[in-house]
Design a protein that fits this description.
Length: 90
């Protein structure tokens, strides 16, 4: 579990919950996105919207190495925990 200690441009204090089987990390890696990339964009996003295909929340922003990516996630329980769903370059 990842705990954000600060406020991102699009949100506040959250925890990023990882599936116990590593499925989330593996799925992100299939798209060339690391968990660090996901966390950075989640915390420092430039825009937030709703995914047209899934209806889930989606945030857009730049990774530390300059790639512009989208991160899709689900709010879990208390709206302070997110489950990464997917991420990809846009």
């Amino acid at each position: 579990m990842y705990e954000n200690s600060g406020r991102g441009a699009c949100g506040g204090l959250v925890r990023i919950h990882l599936a116990g089987d590593g499925g989330n990390i593996d799925h992100l890696a299939e798209h060339g996105i690391s968990m660090d990339d996901f966390e950075h964009v989640f915390d420092n996003c430039e825009d937030e919207d709703e995914s047209r295909s899934s209806g889930r929340p989606i945030r857009f922003g730049y990774t530390e190495d300059g790639r512009y990516i989208a991160v899709v996630f689900e709010w879990v329980d208390d709206d302070m925990t997110v489950l990464p769903v997917t991420a990809y370059e846009v």
